[in-house]
Design a protein that fits this description.
With 685 residues, this protein is α+β, with helices and mostly antiparallel strands. The chain contains 13 helices and 33 strands. The chain has a 6-stranded mixed beta sheet with strand order 15-23-17-18-19-20, with no helix packed on it. It is elongated. The two termini are 20 Å apart. Keywords: Bacterial flagellum, Cell projection, Cilium, Flagellum, Secreted.
């Protein structure tokens, strides 16, 4: 009779556990990370008799948490990748919209500026057009500065978000460690796991994966270890390793992320991947820094090229021809010393105007090796290195080794670098040639009369004392192209070649060979004969006067074309009354379409458009990948829901089943009680 009663009681208790578990599932249907639970039952030990065994009821083995590690891991992985792409796309699209704006971008400002240069070339004596050029120059400068300020605002926003997310990572890490400790205390029997605590921990890890990619390893005591980045431990059992925000060793305003590994603080910024934090770091290091560098490269290249051409011209603000000054102030190359340096003298780094086409964006790290008495410079954009040997001659130079020029400068990538003396071993510097290029560009000229639209040298047919040309042929001389303006300006002074006048007289030898004899101030320069034998007479032939003995400092190039007759003469004189001359203004206007950047392969507009196109293409690829990853994440969520999600219809059916089982078990107990009462009544009679 007792067995009959106990059997009913065991069913009653099992049904109670089932109803409680089903109620628990239903109550947590909207709880993030909750995995549905299921009662696992088994029969109790039967009583054996000679004619067979009689069952004694049921018992609850465990409350099983329906979860699968591969599904949970897949959900974390896809979640982390989606958050990375989503944040990267959000931030990249903001930069893309900025640089590609047809009204607020750089393209219209550059076009308007060079249009103003052309207006000056069309009417060089007009003060109004000159003033317009200064106004457009300032507008271009303002546009560069505005764009750079917008990018800096984005950078400050990203830096702030990185610090906030580091705090969130640390908070989640501490929560996971606390849960590890609780789970370890209750994880005495694998048949009785602390299901709700396990769910809470998995949810915290999932939230962590939204911030950064994680690696999770299971321990035998039920705890887990969580690593980030390249395997750096974040949570080990109940211990945590904080993600700290530290200062960049070259730029204290730029936050970096570090972790305390043993007794060392290790910077892990470059190792963190995935999640929204990984997306922000990737955006900052890739899109934002590269865009600032590229825009700064355009600003620096345009400023340097225009300055060099403007200085080849002259203006007449004080009546006499004066050499043009820099049209723009160009930003200095940013050179930062490493925080570990001890009172180290910085290297001298300048933009090399002669090699402006080689200028690149990005940063260069410079480190001194005292053992080999050499500096190593590494271009961080492609990780290429060059060894700089300050105390070696040219014979030591090679593909990856460089020695200084006679003036002590190393020249590479559009820069001139002079190394400091007395450096200590391991001293480091960061060179960023174009980082400040956009915000550092400024207009230098303040008055329209300072615009050097004229050339210091005027060309034309030689004339007699009466101002008449005696040329009879069909030869022509083009405008003078000035190279090194310093020597040309010296030639303008009294007694200089341009002050005296340079004459090129066409002559012909008996064998038919023709040449130009060079005269200065009417005196023949012996042996100074410039052969005239062009392949195409319409195109003619160029001559640089600095190749003539005695005129080495006169870096002026002229082109003579056509068919001059013997005795025809052409003059190159100082341009002393050239207020209306537009030769140099035309040369400045031609810079707009000249292939100056990218080793002579791109104009300013082409380089900027290429940057905009590359950024737009990258933004589109990120958007496509984000959308694809969103689909994968949705599939991973559905895959997890299939096993671990709470289905209310299923739970309602389970509740009815357990309710019926409970009622049936209660009926067994009632029947057992009635039988027992009947037996008692029989005994009493």
């Amino acid at each position: 009779m007792a067995d009959f009663l106990n059997t009913g009681i065991s069913g009653l208790r099992a049904s109670q556990r089932g109803l409680a578990t089903t109620s628990h599932n239903i109550s947590n249907v909207n709880t993030d990370g909750f995995s549905r639970q299921r009662v696992e039952q088994d029969t109790t030990h039967p009583h054996y008799y000679s004619r067979g065994a009689i069952g004694t009821g049921t018992q609850v083995q465990t409350i099983q948490r329906l979860s699968e590690d591969t599904r949970v891991e897949g959900l974390r992985r896809h979640n982390s990748e989606f958050e990375r792409l989503d944040k990267l796309q959000e931030m990249t699209s903001r930069v893309d919209n900025l640089v590609a704006d047809k009204d607020a971008g750089l393209s219209p400002a550059m076009r308007e500026f060079f249009d103003a240069v052309e207006e000056v070339a069309n009417d060089p004596a007009n003060t109004v057009t000159r003033q317009l050029l200064l106004t457009r120059g300032q507008a271009l400068v303002d546009r560069f500065e505005t764009m750079d300020n917008r990018l800096l605002e984005l950078q400050n926003d990203v830096d702030k978000r990185i610090g906030q997310k580091a705090e969130q990572v640390n908070g989640l890490a501490h929560s996971i460690a606390e849960l590890n400790n609780e789970i370890r205390q209750r994880f005495h029997n694998e048949q009785r796991p602390p299901n709700d605590l396990l769910d809470q921990r998995d949810e915290k890890i999932r939230q962590l994966s939204e911030l950064v990619a994680v690696r999770v390893t299971q321990e035998r005591d039920g705890s887990v270890n969580v690593g980030v980045g390249g395997g750096q431990p974040l949570v080990v059992g109940d211990r945590t390793y904080n993600l700290d925000v530290v200062k960049n060793p070259y730029d204290p305003e730029r936050p970096e992320l570090a972790m305390q590994i043993g007794d060392r603080e290790v910077v892990v910024t470059d190792r963190l991947r995935g999640g929204s934090m990984g997306g922000l770091l990737e955006f900052r290091e890739g899109v934002l820094d590269e865009t600032r560098d590229d825009i700064g490269r355009v600003a620096t290249s345009l400023g340097v090229a225009l300055n060099e051409q403007h200085k080849r011209g002259v203006h007449y603000e004080e009546g006499e021809p004066q050499r043009g000054d820099n049209f723009f102030d160009v930003a200095d190359v940013k050179v930062s010393a490493h925080a570990a340096n001890v009172d180290a003298e910085k290297p001298e780094v300048q933009i090399d105007p002669e090699r402006i086409g080689e200028l690149q964006g990005g940063a260069y790290s410079l480190r001194y090796d005292a053992g080999n008495d050499q500096w190593q410079v590494r271009r961080e954009q492609d990780n290429q290195t060059i060894n700089l040997l300050p105390n070696q001659n040219a014979s030591a130079a090679g593909n990856d080794v460089m020695v200084p020029d006679e003036d002590g400068y190393f020249r590479f990538d559009g820069m001139k670098v002079k190394l400091p003396d007395g450096a200590e071993d391991g001293e480091r510097f960061l060179i960023e040639p174009t980082k400040e290029g956009a915000r550092g560009l400024d207009t230098r000229l303040s008055r329209p009369t300072q615009i050097a639209a004229a050339s210091p040298a005027a060309t034309g047919e030689a004339v007699t004392a009466t101002g008449q040309s005696e040329n009879t042929g069909r030869g022509e001389i083009g405008p003078a192209e000035v190279g090194d303006a310093e020597g040309v300006m010296e030639a303008l002074r009294e007694g200089g070649p341009l002050h005296k006048g340079v004459i090129l007289e066409h002559q012909q030898e008996p064998n038919g060979e023709s040449y130009f004899q060079v005269y200065v101030g009417g005196e023949e320069i012996p042996g100074a004969r410039l052969r005239y034998n062009p392949d195409d007479h319409d195109r003619g032939q160029e001559y640089n006067l600095s190749n003539v003995e005695g005129l080495e400092d006169l870096d002026v190039t002229v082109r003579i074309s056509g068919l001059p007759d013997p005795g025809d003469s052409f003059a190159i004189n100082g341009n002393y009354e050239g207020v209306g001359d537009n030769t140099n203004a035309l040369a400045m206007a031609e810079l707009m379409d000249e292939s100056i950047m990218d080793n002579g392969n791109s104009s300013f507009q082409e380089a900027y458009s290429s940057m905009v196109g590359d950024l737009g293409g990258f933004s589109q690829r990120v958007q496509t990948n984000r959308d694809a990853q969103q689909t994968l994440l949705r599939q991973a969520e559905e895959h997890w829901e299939e096993l671990s999600g709470v289905n209310l219809d299923e739970e309602a059916a389970n509740m009815m089943e357990y309710q019926q089982a409970y009622q049936a078990a209660a009926q067994v107990i009632t029947t057992a009680d009635e039988v027992f009462q009947e037996i008692l009544n029989a005994v009493r009679r």
